[in-house]
Each structure stands twice: as structure tokens, then as C-alpha cells.
Amino acid sequence: MAPTFCSTLFVLPFLLTVSFTNLFPSLTNARATGKDVTVSYSLIPSEWLTSHLKASWQRVENTSNYTVEYNYFVTKETYSVRCGSSSSVCVHAIKHIFPQAAYHEVEVTVREDEEDGRKQEVGRSFMTVAIPQNITSCDLLYNQYVEVDVTTKISMDVIPEIGSDPLRVIWSGIGFRPINTSSRVMYPTFDSPGLQEVKAEVTNIYSECHAFAAFEAEYPVKQAPVFSSVAGNASAIKVDKGDTVAFSCNNTGTSPSFLWQIGDLNATILSSSSCNLDYLFNATGIFNVYLKIENAISRAECDPITVSVKNPAPTPAKVASSVVPSLIVLIVIICVLIALQRYHAWYKRQAHVEHANLLINKASEKKTNWTTKRDYGSVEMLEVV
Length: 385
Prior knowledge:
Layout: H1 20-23, E1 31-33, E2 37-44, E3 47-58, E4 65-71, E5 76-82, E6 89-97, E7 103-113, E8 119-130, E9 138-141, E10 147-149, E11 156-160, E12 168-173, E13 176-181, E14 185-186, E15 194-203, E16 208-218, E17 226-228, E18 236-240, E19 244-249, E20 257-262, E21 268-272, E22 276-280, E23 285-294, E24 299-301, E25 305-310, H2 316-365, E26 370-376, E27 379-384
Parallel strand pairs: 10-16, 18-25
Antiparallel strand pairs: 1-2, 2-3, 3-6, 4-5, 4-7, 7-8, 9-11, 11-14, 12-13, 12-15, 15-16, 17-19, 19-22, 20-21, 20-23, 23-24, 23-25, 26-27
């Protein structure tokens, strides 16, 4: 009878939701068929280094005793097998514990036990058994920042604490659909700023772990022109001492802070959460106005504005405001002088009148001699001798 080949690959219940082929895309020897011998294996979930190996071969006519040898290239295991007379296919299954998680090469040889004691080879098969490691936990590593740039791809790497390939990683999070891949590295981008969450579910044939990361996605700050209330976005402006200039800028970064520097030597440093600044220039000279913008993920420096400050030129209004008080004082002084001059003239006339009255009185008391005519102010009198 010509030999035929058949075998069965055990399917584990816990793998119903995870494809064995997907878990081990590079594994082609889950069932190996050699010359007249077929070998398959399945893994035991509760014993992650243990597997079931199953060898099957076509029963040689009138022969029931066989020797099956499993060569693991480190150790060998040999078993005597007796096939039942009612089956045309002989099967031998064993449970083997592998020393470590890795890819193990196994060679299975089946020999017929002849009556004279010789062992005639029936066939052999060669296969690879993949034993994955058990995953205990895993961490999600990314750019090591609590805040990330919403416009730039970030590198995220999930690291199992104990584990080996082949692995499957299901990436999920805000802003992108779940991705099922064998890669442990992911480069997500986000549609909008705010709190972002990324999850990584790592599985192998035995176990799984979950990693989680939460962080703020932010827009970076950018270089922005600085505007002034004097001349818009001009890079140089002129003002007078005592003038207040309003500075402003346009910025789209998330939660920025602003650092203003007025001047170079002995500069004035002002920090603000707003891109608006009102500054009073109370000294003459040339001042460069600098602005630095930053947030948690970026920094930008704006082009400076040069401000020339000079003493203000006199104006008619200022001249009037300074002349009027002086003019009032001058008028008051003139009025006082005129009043004094009139008072002095009046006082002089009064003295003359009193002197004239005195002479008249004397003249009436004795004989008078009108010899001399004198002028006493507005009265002409003869002097009494």
C-alpha cells in the first residue's frame, strides 16, 4: 500500500480571537511534513514553555511496533510505540518542556521494529517550534515631554518588561483609528490641541499587557511681527520724552508667555501673559525693544523695534501756557507802580496844602509882607516875611 500523509493541528480555545498565523507571520512549520512523517505542535497556555508534539505516519502492513525519536539538537527522547491493528495511521503525542523561550528546531524520526531486531526507518520530519515569552508588564515611551507639538509627529515606543517577538500591538487613542500592527513604534499626529491619550495593547500567544500615556498637545509659538501704536509695524519709530507707546503682536501658540526687553544697557525686563505692552519713555536716547515668546514646547524671538526718544519741541500752546503767567505778574507790578506814583503825588499835594494853610494863619495874626511868590503845587502864595 502506498503511504499517505495526514495530520491535525491543535487549535487552542483561547486563540479564538487572535489568529495564530497573525501572531506568527514568519512561522511556516506549525505543521511539518517530511518523508512519510507529519509532525505538528500546539502550545499549552498554562505552561508557557510547554508544548504538545504530535507525530503521525502511515502504518506499515503487518507491523505494529515502532520507535519514535525526537531530536531537539540538545537532548534526545526515544519512545517505543505500538500501533493498533484497526488503524492504518499511527499517532504518537508527547508533552515537551522547552528550556527557554525561543525558536527551537526539532527533528522527528520514525523507525519500524523488525523481527530480527533491526530498525528500518519509515520516515522523518523537521520543524521549528516557536516558544514566546510571557509578558508581565509594558511601558509606553515617547518624547519625554508632558507637552508635545500638535503639528509634529511624535515617536512612541512600547517596551514589554519581559517578552520576545513575535508580538502584536493594537494602538488606539484620540485622533486616530485603532491600528493593529507588529511594530512596537508608533508616530501619531493629532488634529487639535488639548489632552491626548494613547493606548497600546501588546499581546503574544500567552499573555498581554496594556500601556497608557496622557499628555497635552499644543501649538508651537512662532516668530511674529511687533506692532506699535506710533507707526504700525515699522521697525523704527520716533517719539518725544514722556510719550507712552503701545506695543502688540500676533501669536497663535498655546499658552504662551511674553518677555519684553526695553533697551540694551541697563535694560528694563517685563514679563507678561499678554502680547500687549504700554510703556512710558521718560528718558531721551535710542531704545531697542525686544520680544521673546515661549511656551512649554517652543520658543521664538521677534525682530526688534528701534525707538528714538527726544525732548519735545516748543509749541504755541506751550509758549502761551508759559507766557501768560509772566504777563499777569507784569501787569500787577505796573498797576502797583502806578498806584504808588499816584499816591505819592496825592500825598505831596496834601503836604503843600497843609503848609499853605499854616502860612495863611500866620498872616492873619501879624502884618504880612508879600514879597515873594512861590508855587506850592496848584496854589500860588506870597511868602509872608
